[in-house]
Structures are given as structure tokens and as C-alpha cells.
Amino acid sequence: MKSSRILLVAAALAAGVGAAVAADETSLEISIKDHRFSTAELHAPADKPITIVVKNLDSTPEEFESKALKIEKVVAGNAEITVRLRPLKPGRYHFVGEYHEATAKGELVVE
Predict the structure, then answer these.
(1) Do residues 109 and 43 make contact, with C-beta atoms less than 8 angstroms apart?
(2) Could you tell me which residues come within 8 angstroms of residue 111 by beta carbon, excluding any fewer than 6 positions away?
């Protein structure tokens, strides 16, 4: 009985810590349609974790890539991925859709 109470307290503390981290995180969303990002420019505050949901509305796969952010992740057609970033310093971080790099261009602006 005592061990189950300890587990419940530990689970409650873990949930509280997770909620505190999630509240401090910036959530952004971007979509790919016709091999272009919409919105092509994302904004986030500096020094806070960032989560970006990338939705691919095209039927063909795309690769969400950024050398500056050290990301390279394939998004299947009509699917989505979630990218989690560490807190970043102010700056402009370019990203592309590598499979259609001529049209799929974007930028994350951290301020």
C-alpha cells in the first residue's frame, strides 16, 4: 500500500513537471501544399523550447530540412511530423523541403 502511494506521488510530480515544460514551450504549425510552405515565415521567442508540427497536404512525400537547425525529417504524403527544437538564440534559421527545394523554402525567425 505504501509503495502504491509513493508511485502515485511520483506520477503526479512527473505530470506536473511535464505540464510546466509544455507551458514554457512555443508550439508552431506549418503546412506544405503544392510543394510550398504556408506560412513560409515562423516566429518564436528566444531561449524557449519550440515544437513545430509540419503537415504535408500534398500526396507526395517531402523532406523537412534545415542545416542551421540540424533537422532532416521525411514527411509522408498527407501526413504530419512533429519537430522539437532546443531553446535557440535570436536569429534567422532557414529551412527547405529538400525534394522541392526550388519552391519549398521557409524561415524560422527567433526573436
Answers:
(1) yes
(2) 43, 44, 45, 46, 90
What pTM does this model have? 0.78
Q: In what order do the strands lie in the sheet with 79-85?
A: 36-38, 26-33, 50-56, 79-85
Residue 108 sits at φ, ψ, to 5 deg, of: -100, 120
- The rounded distance, in Å, linking the Cα atoms of 84 and 24 is 13
Note the pLDDT tens digit of each residue in 13-67: 555 545 545 568 999 999 999 999 999 999 999 999 999 999 999 999 999 999 9
Secondary structure of the chain in the HEC alphabet?
Answer: CHHHHHHHHHHHHHHHHHHHHHHCCEEEEEEEECCEEECCEEEECCCCCEEEEEEECCCCCEEEEECCCCEEEEECCCEEEEEEECCCCCEEEEEEEHHHCCCCEEEEEEC
